[in-house]
Amino acid sequence: MNNIQKSTATIQNALPDFAPEIAIILGSGLGKITDIMDVKATISYSELAGFPQTNVVGHDGVVLLGTVGGKNVMFLKGRKHLYEGNAVDSLKTMIRTIKSLGVQTLMLTNAAGSLIKSYGPGSLMAISDHINLTGTNPLIGDNDDEWGPRFPPMENAWDADLRKNLMSAANKAGITMGEGVYCQFLGPTFETPAEIGMARAIGADLVGMSTVTENIIARHCGLQCIGISAVTNLAAGMGDVALSHDQTLEGAAKAEQNMAKLIREFIVNL
């Protein structure tokens, strides 16, 4: 058995006959969102063959299986980032395991810097498209033909119909939410003001160090994707507060309650 098969079996054995309708990967400082779930099983990433071993504060490294509003849901608390090194194989294992469990919809969340002054810390934005400025692609190398095509298209990488449902859920929950283009830099340094100026010039509204990588892997294997960014700060050069990971966690905490309400409303109306 390969790592995907082993991890799939471990999850299925933990909660037999459980078929998740949606999987949600939680970004930095957003772990408390799982409070909306009636948890049936908890599995550490360390128990799952080939899963990422998370080393960044705010990424707990556990899978939660349970229900939200009567729907079967899978939460994944934590991700591996490209800047940590050797991330791609573990991310492929994680996302393809999700696919193997029968999930059709993957929600990706993150903590992001905003390039729009009216969407400051604590704001939520739906991801409408992305720009990959990491200088790499997780599908480089021999293609995994069993999972997807050599040249996967990326139109509608962030599913437009799901995004309409998400915006509707925000309205029902009384939450103001924008939408915009997310740009992934490699990290681990925060961006310079000049880099932010470049990102704005090419159409970015949000910046961060994750999410695009997972989206590419997910789209390659046929998962539909929806994305939400929790704005933790204005991007470099736009505010008077020095950027730090502590600030990221503080900003995520401001957005966490509204994001939990939004995700619950979205799931209930799936």
In DSSP terms (H or I, runs of 4 or more residues), the helix count works out at: 6
Order of helices and strands: HEEEEHEEHEHEHEH
Q: Roughly how much helix do the residues carry, as a percent range?
A: 25-40%
Q: Overall mean pLDDT score?
A: 92
Strand segment tally: 9
The N- to C-terminal Cα distance equals 33 Å
Strands across the major sheet, in which order?
5-8-7-6-9
Strand content: 25-35%
Helix/strand/pairing category? alpha/beta
The general outline is globular
Low-confidence stretches: none
Radius of gyration: 17 Å
Largest sheet: 5 strands, mixed, barrel
Describe this structure in words.
By secondary structure, this protein is an alpha/beta fold. The protein contains six helices and nine strands. It has helices at 3-14, 88-100, 160-172, 193-201, 212-220, 245-268, and strands spanning 22-26, 38-44, 62-68, 71-77, 105-114, 124-133, 177-185, 206-208, 224-234. It has a five-stranded mixed beta barrel with strand order 5-8-7-6-9. α1 (3-14) crosses α2, α2 (88-100) packs across α5 and α3 (160-172) packs across α6. The longest helix is centred in the C-terminal third of the chain and has 24 residues, at 245-268. It is globular, with a radius of gyration of 17 Å. The two termini are 33 Å apart. The model has no long low-confidence stretch (mean pLDDT 92).
